[in-house]
Structures are given as C-alpha cells and as structure tokens.
C-alpha cells in the first residue's frame, strides 16, 4: 500500500489515469499558434485607425498605442482560427467596437449562435451565455476568455431547486430567464430573455406561471399582464442597486432628461423611468427617439458603446459596473484564441433537455 491522497491510494490514481480516455482539449484539436507580436507599428496604426474613429469619444488618443496591437492581433487570429466573437452590449468599447463580430442582448446572441458557420465561438459575456451557445451549437468549440465570469442571477438557483418547485406546484408552467445554468434550463418548460419575457409569459394561456429566478423582472412583467407571475428570490446585483429616489433626484436636477431602465431593476425604479427594455431595446430607443439628454439605468458600458453611434445625444452617466462582465478583457480574448481556452462544454444529456427550453423561446412567433 502506498500513501493516500485525499483518501485515494496512489496505486488507484495510477490505474484511473492509465485507463482514462479524456477527450482531446481544444488546443489539441486546433493546434498551437504562434503568439503574435504586440508592437505598435505603422501597419498596426493604419489598420486600426478606422476602429479608433468609433471609440475616440471614450478612449483617449494616448491610450490607443497600448490597445491597438492587441485589437489587431485578435482580428488576425480570428481569421486563422475561423472564429467569431459574440459580444454582449455590456462589453467595454475596445471589445464592442474593436474585435466583436456580433454584438447584442442575450436574445440576439443566442440566435446568432445558431446562425454562424465559424468553427469557434469566443463568447465575450458571462458563463451562462457561453453555455447557451454550446447548447445551441454543440458541434462548435465555445470559448470564454474567463471561466470565472458568472452572474448573481445564475448563482441564485439550481436544477434541484426547480425540481422541488415543480413538485410543490404541479401543472404551473416554469419559465426560466436566460441568466441561469444549463442545469436549470433543463428543468424548465421554456426560456425567456428581457426582450421577450412578456410574450413568453402570455404564450401558455394559463392564469399563472413561474418566472424564475429574477424577482424584479418577474414583478415588472407581472405589472403588464393579467397572468399571475410567480417569482423566486434572485436578483441582479448590478440593477438592484438603483433606487427610485435616485431617479427622482436626477429629474429634479434636470427635468428635461429622459431616463430609460433595464427591467432587472426594481419595479419602483422602472415606474420612474420613461421606458424600460432589454439592452438591445434600450439602444434602439435611443437611436430612434434621439433624445437631447438620456440616462441609461443599467451597466456602465452601454452608454459608452452607443454614444459613438448617436453623436447628437448627451449621455448622463450614472451606472453600476457588472464585475462579472468586466472580467472579459482584450488580453484574455487574445489568450483565448492563442491557447484555445477556456472551453465551455455542457454535459450532452443536460444540453439536450436545455436545448428544448431555449429553442421553444427562439421559435416563438413574435
Ligand atoms: P439583456 O442584454 O438580455 O437585456 O440582459 C442584460 C443582462 O444583464 C445580461 O446579463
Ligand atoms: Fe448577471 Fe446582472 Fe451582471 Fe447581467 S449585469 S451578468 S444579470 S450580474
């Protein structure tokens, strides 16, 4: 007998290793690629000049030589790896305008994951988004630049919690917000995002439904329908920090300002706003209405990203940072493409069930 390691003998560890056939990693499948040089050469300056035009309102010129080589390298590596970058609207402007191929809200990114013919998806967002891409495109390699990019909503509930909820409430449809793990989606009847939550709630034709896990989104949707929307106890740590008093104070200072809010905010905050909608709907609202002054009650990068496309609009910028979204940086995206990590793979038996919930949502006629 040899020494033990966490209760397992070294002999048995060797045996397990000898017989294990773990699948090849993404790096083994795709092969090594040389790490590109990150010098700010005249060629890099010229190639990235059109990108700088889009971010010059938010990134000082003095910072560009530090960012441009990484942006240039990522854009080159994307071609070599046949990769596409899906980036959420909360990504910083260097990512959003510099390297993303497709940007959008959770619904748009989920739909785009089904359309791309790239071999590799680099998900610039949080973990549940990468899982959703893998659920919808199991044949693609899905990478997330930082595996720790989580979400307070996704952390608030497990598949076992949903099973218990169903047992206690037989016959009541359970809708899961997309901000959940694959395990939770696998236990629910359908998925929704903040873009389509009301439509999904009303699609069952029942007098009550569960909408989990965001208690504020559920309450905001409940305020717009006759369906009784039952909630669980999750919240977005970014949006729940906004208060109605804060909004009233801004209006007192500047009665002309238009205030638009995300429906993950508490209902009393939404009630004070001129409009509430998903990140994509908020962007569309600003582009269509072109208000003189606007305040986006959501994550900080939204206003930074949309400002370059709406030069006539003055953005007043109170905001809260999402620490999870902010884990995704240019440097980590580059590492991701060079080293083909971190790969997100949902267990196929869970993915199969979760896919039903996500596809039901995508296939709902609008
Ligand atoms: P949407 O982009 O779908 O509005 O979601 C916001 C969000 O918080 C994503 O984590
Ligand atoms: Fe999750 Fe809120 Fe961050 Fe979105 S903003 S990822 S809901 S914690």
Helix and strand content put the structural class at: alpha/beta
Bound molecules: 1,3-dihydroxyacetonephosphate, iron/sulfur cluster
Q: Which strands sit side by side, in order, in the main sheet?
A: 4-3-5-6
Number of strands: 14
Quickly give the CATH architecture of the largest domain. Answer: 3-Layer(aba) Sandwich
Query: Which oligomerization state do the chains in this entry correspond to?
Result: single chain
Number of helices: 18
Function: Catalyzes the condensation of iminoaspartate with dihydroxyacetone phosphate to form quinolinate.
Pathway: Cofactor biosynthesis; NAD(+) biosynthesis; quinolinate from iminoaspartate: step 1/1
Family: Belongs to the quinolinate synthase family. Type 2 subfamily.
Cofactor: [4Fe-4S] cluster
């Amino acid at each position: 007998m040899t020494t033990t390691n966490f209760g397992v003998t070294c002999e048995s560890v060797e045996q397990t290793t000898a017989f294990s056939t773990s699948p090849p990693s993404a790096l083994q499948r795709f092969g090594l690629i040389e790490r590109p040089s990150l010098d700010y050469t005249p060629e890099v300056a010229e190639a990235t000049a059109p990108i700088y035009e889009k971010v010059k309102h938010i990134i000082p010129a003095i910072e560009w030589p530090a960012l441009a080589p990484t942006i240039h390298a990522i854009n080159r590596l994307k071609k070599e790896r046949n990769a596409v970058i899906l980036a959420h609207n909360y990504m910083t402007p260097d990512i959003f305008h510099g390297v993303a191929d497709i940007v959008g809200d959770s619904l748009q990114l989920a739909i785009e994951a089904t359309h791309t013919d790239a071999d590799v998806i680099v998900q610039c967002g949080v973990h549940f988004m990468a899982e959703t891409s893998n659920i919808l495109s199991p044949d693609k390699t899905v990478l997330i630049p930082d595996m720790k990019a989580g979400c307070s909503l996704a952390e608030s509930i497990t598949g076992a919690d949903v099973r218990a909820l169903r047992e206690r409430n037989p016959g009541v449809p359970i809708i899961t917000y997309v901000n959940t793990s694959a395990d939770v989606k696998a236990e629910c009847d359908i998925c929704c995002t903040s873009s389509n939550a009301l439509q999904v709630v009303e699609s069952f034709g029942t007098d009550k439904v569960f909408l989990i896990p965001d208690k504020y989104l559920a309450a905001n949707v409940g305020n717009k329908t006759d369906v009784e929307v039952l909630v669980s106890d999750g919240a977005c740590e970014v949006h729940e920090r906004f208060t109605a008093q804060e909004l009233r104070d801004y209006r007192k200072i500047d009665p002309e300002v238009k205030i638009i809010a995300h429906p993950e905010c508490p209902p009393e905050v939404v009630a004070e706003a001129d409009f509430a909608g998903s990140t994509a709907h908020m962007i569309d609202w600003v582009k269509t209405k072109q208000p003189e002054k606007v305040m986006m009650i959501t994550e900080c990068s939204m206003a930074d990203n949309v400002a370059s496309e709406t030069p006539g609009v003055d953005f007043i910028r109170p905001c809260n940072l999402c620490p999870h979204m902010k884990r995704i940086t240019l440097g980590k995206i580059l590492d991701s493409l060079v080293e083909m990590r971190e790969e997100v793979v949902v267990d196929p038996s869970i993915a199969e069930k979760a896919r039903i919930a996500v596809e039901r949502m995508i296939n709902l006629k609008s």
